[in-house]
TrEMBL record:
A Pfam family hit: TOBE_2
Molecular-function GO term, any one: ATP hydrolysis activity
Lineage, highest ranks first: Bacteria, Bacillati, Actinomycetota, Actinomycetes, Streptosporangiales
UniProt keyword terms in alphabetical order: ATP-binding, Cell membrane, Membrane, Nucleotide-binding, Transport
This protein's record includes keyword Membrane: yes
Protein name stated in the entry: sn-glycerol-3-phosphate import ATP-binding protein UgpC
GO cellular component, one term: ATP-binding cassette (ABC) transporter complex, substrate-binding subunit-containing
Amino acid sequence: MNPSVLTPLALPKPPNAVDVSCHNLVKRFPDGTVALDDVTIECPPGGITVLLGPSGCGKTTLLRCVAGLETQTTGTMSIGGRDVSAVDAGLRGVAMVFQNHALYPDKTAEGNLAFPLRMAGVPKRERARRVAAIAELLQIDGLLKRRPGQLSGGQRQRVGIGRALIREPDVLLMDEPFSSLDAELRVEMRAEFLALQRRLGMTTLYVTHDQAEALSLADRMVVLRAGRIEQATSAEEMFRRPATSFVAGFLGGMNLLAGTLDDGTLRVPGHPHGLRLPALPANGSQNLTLGVRPEDLKPGPGGPDDLSFEITTMLTELLGRERLVHGHLGDRRLKVRVHADVPVGERLTVHAAAADLHLFDHDGARLPGAGD
Ligand SMILES: Nc1ncnc2c1ncn2[C@@H]1O[C@H](COP(=O)(O)OP(=O)(O)OP(=O)(O)O)[C@@H](O)[C@H]1O
């Protein structure tokens, strides 16, 4: 990787970066499918807003609505304060990068890069200048005479990004751009893209269903579920304090266990005495969901202020330095990250500190509790 691409992280954002906002967007397809159900989001100027969520939750549809490739059924959107709800795709100042590159197979890399400029009537000399500049920026200047079939997946995606950037869009829309690349290249391209985005400062909406990618890129993270926004906040806040049990399970693979709260004592299966949590409401009884991350469960019984469980180990996965142990707690499955190998089919006692517990009410909404 060219260090000059990675260093300018501290460059100031261009003063003309625009915000993107969508208000009450509904998208109903002719067959009745409601892909977006009253979506309102604000994407900060010059930042990366990551749209995350399971397959079919509406991520691509939202991106296509912002691009103008799809018309929303109701709702409005604006770019840089301008209402673009009814503006043609080509006049919105947005460019899109697709997962499958969508390059023209019979054009060279150079021809693909120059294509949007030719369409816009940019004179030949200026086209050549901008193609050379973008090719240098993306380190594909040695590949310009090749056709897509003669390029690797990563090189093709660089051309795809270059073709989107060459028109100097205000807004860049990326739909799982690196998901077809192998794991190592994906991580490298992601870091390169982040550096490039920081350098150029274009407002970016980035779709992924890869939570590691989402956490590493997002200035603002939006989790969608069945066409609705489940939570929208900074990546760090979402990881630290997921607003719902759905977000908790999706982001970081939190263990979720059904439990009850009796007069301030949390009871979960496998835990004989319950755990008294001062922050919890001290009267009445309610069903709730307890969340704890695999890495927050430690082997051993812990102390009196910890919640401990005895699980039966089922299988272990090597993650590198650590292992992910899959176990049973009653009829629930539980994952624990450990450093040493653990025999399968044995009892294992693990504990979590009260501060690492997340609690959700019976509707899945976060309860202020242990770790808050
Ligand atoms: N043209 C269409 N006609 C009818 N339904 C559609 C159409 N396009 C998408 N959908 C539906 O809208 C919903 C949202 O689809 P969308 O492609 O936005 O999801 P996604 O979150 O991007 O999923 P993935 O991660 O699998 O790409 C899905 O139920 C999908 O089947």
